[in-house]
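yo

u said u wanted the structure for the complex thing, so here. seqs first:
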Amino acid sequence: MKFIKFLLTGILFGIVMTKSEAVSWFRIQEMFRFESFHMYGIIGTAVILGAIFVALIKRAKGKTITGEPIKFNPKNMSIPRYLIGGSIFGLGWAMTGACPGPMFTLLGHGVWAILLVILSSVLGTYFYGAVRSKLPH
Amino acid sequence: MSPIVDFISQPWHWAVSGAMISLVMVLLLWFGGEFGVSSNLRTMCAIGGAGNKYDFFKINWKNQIWNLVFIGGAVIGGFIATQFFASPEPVQISESTSAYLETIGINTPQTMAEGTGYVPEEIFGLDRMFSISNLLFLIVGGFLIGFGTRWAGGCTSGHAISGLSNLQLPSLIAVIGFFIGGLIMTWLILPQLLSSINPIP
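structre next:
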């Protein structure tokens, strides 16, 4: 039963991804071609409101539903890891028009070809685990 | 149809969409999770036994089940949104984008008969998907997503939303990386790739 709240939040997320059109391959092309404000508006609003919420949670020492303090884990500093890793992800994002959240949402749309993208993304993650020690972090 | 369903069924304004995404992030934090989708790919490797081979996958994946349930919900949400709250029109892309896409062999649906405008038939259509070039396109695209997000330690949700909301400089660097890769693909590689996959008659 403790997973129901995550299932419902996921359902909300899938609906938001669809109705916002962030799952649209065309919207991602439009974004990377700077021909519409739509995606920038979505991400910008989410970040500004998100930053306000995070600051409020920190100030109020917010707790989870089970009473534990909400933790924010700072990320370790590195340039190559985020810049190169991020660029590789960006290549795939612009190709398939889907980042990981929309990948799963599109499966619910009945876009069966996305299953292939999901499977090979698992494979890509596995390959990262295999070569991890040889990469700069 | 009820007025409420009609209201939800229109495409959402970007400000509403952005606010709803930040709500999802806050809900996950409140429930003791966090907003980051790509870590599920690592969990899937761990469940498949990858931890026997590589330490990176030696994680207690049972602690991550909530996140798998979350993306399972995202699949259901995608289903519900397209079945019950489908937009009356295809996604309205700017004219300059659709004119450009035409030149590289991608048709932007203008009517619902042509498609909903979420994904192009030329890439994702089941009748084309099994050609070698389309198979390779989808496999390479997915591989880059899985490899890149794990190296960068997050994707759009983990870095662009969660990380930037927490004012993390590493996340800003990652987002700059997302755009470097995205711009190179969109402007330099995709035009070549797509016009070779979809030769214009």
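The two ends of chain B are 43 Å apart (CA to CA). DSSP finds ten helices and no strands in chain B.
cya
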